[in-house]
């Protein structure tokens, strides 16, 4: 067990030193907190898999502070990449490119001929990477299979004693992991929806993109709390709450303020705020909070329309709930 230090934003130089020494440092981004280590240090990268309990064949992204750090591994960036970088970086968009031979350790890429690159919109983290003078790997800083962390406290809960430190820059603003788009093939393929929507990407690239099939995305378990999660359609809240109150086990309710105000459920609740943007920002914190409440066996969660940011929200909710919709049998 090591002591996990909390760094304030003005202590980022110390955190950068730790990265250079091969230590693990969790860092803030606009999406969720990441778990950083020098991407060119195989030993450090291996420790990231250990700390997360992550399967060794699930590749890590490379988090950069500038485009030069990407070029070092991929050479010239293709036109789609340049267009998306100009429009959306720094921001919640991860780009997958073919890499130059032997440029990145197979420990990072899982032996793939491609790698995922991300430049987060967080000044403290960009400064840390610049100071460390090395790109860092940056998976979400949760234990593998658990909800992604949107606060330093969430990271501490999962990683205490396993990593050298956490740079605390408060709660993240987006709350869902970045959109991932694969630019290594004949057509751009979105492999994970995020805050940058399909529509936005298609408008900028002036073409249709494909989506990776959900089934092939389910290889690893995701956002898997101990409690069962079910989705509730808006029209079902009244009967769902009436049903929930009568159950022999505790049910948690995650819904917008308006829904909680309308039905005033006498149950454990978590307020998602107002609208899909608030709900996305608060989603993982809500799942963590209700899951940690004693005896909550079931969490009922509000659905949103599946467009724009709703694509990302519903993708995470479908994974957390194994696509189960609540109904009265
Ligand atoms: O918003 C985010 O992207 C956050 C913050 C911390 O930057 N990071 C994040 O990393 O969500 P992670 O590792 O939890 O999710 C990245 C996903 C993984 O599912 C991984 O399988 C996939 O990206 N990935 C990484 N490299 C890939 C590659 N070369 N080809 C296909 N998928 C890849
Ligand atoms: Mg993750």
SSE arrangement:
Layout: E1 5-7, H1 12-20, E2 25-27, E3 34-38, H2 42-52, E4 61-63, H3 67-74, H4 79-88, E5 93-98, H5 106-109, E6 114-118, H6 123-132, E7 136-137, H7 152-159, E8 165-167, E9 179-182, E10 189-192, H8 198-205, E11 210-211, E12 228-232, H9 237-245, E13 250-255, H10 257-263, E14 268-271, H11 275-292, E15 296-302, H12 309-320
Parallel strand pairs: 1-8, 2-8, 4-6, 5-9, 10-11, 12-15, 13-14, 13-15
Antiparallel strand pairs: 2-3, 3-7, 4-7, 5-6, 9-10
Bound molecules: threonylcarbamoyladenylate and magnesium ion.
Main features:
15 strands, binds magnesium ion, four-stranded parallel sheet, double-stranded RNA binding, eleven-stranded mixed sheet, TC-AMP_synthase_SUA5, alpha/beta, 329 residues, binds threonylcarbamoyladenylate, Sua5/YwlC_C, 12 helices
User: Looking at the structure, what is the overall shape?
Assistant: globular
Strand content: 15-25%
Query: What is the mean predicted local confidence, pLDDT?
Result: 96
Distance between the termini: 47 Å
**Fraction of residues in H or I helices:** 25-40%
| Major sheet summary line | 11 strands, mixed
Rg, rounded, reads 20 Å
* N-to-C series of helices and strands: EHEEHEHHEHEHEHEEEHEEHEHEHEH
Helix count equals: 12
Q: Name the hetero compounds present.
A: threonylcarbamoyladenylate, magnesium ion
Query: How does the helix and strand content classify structurally?
Result: alpha/beta
List the uncertain runs.
Answer: none
Walk across the major sheet and give the strand order. 1-8-2-3-7-4-6-5-9-10-11
Q: Please provide the count of β strands.
A: 15
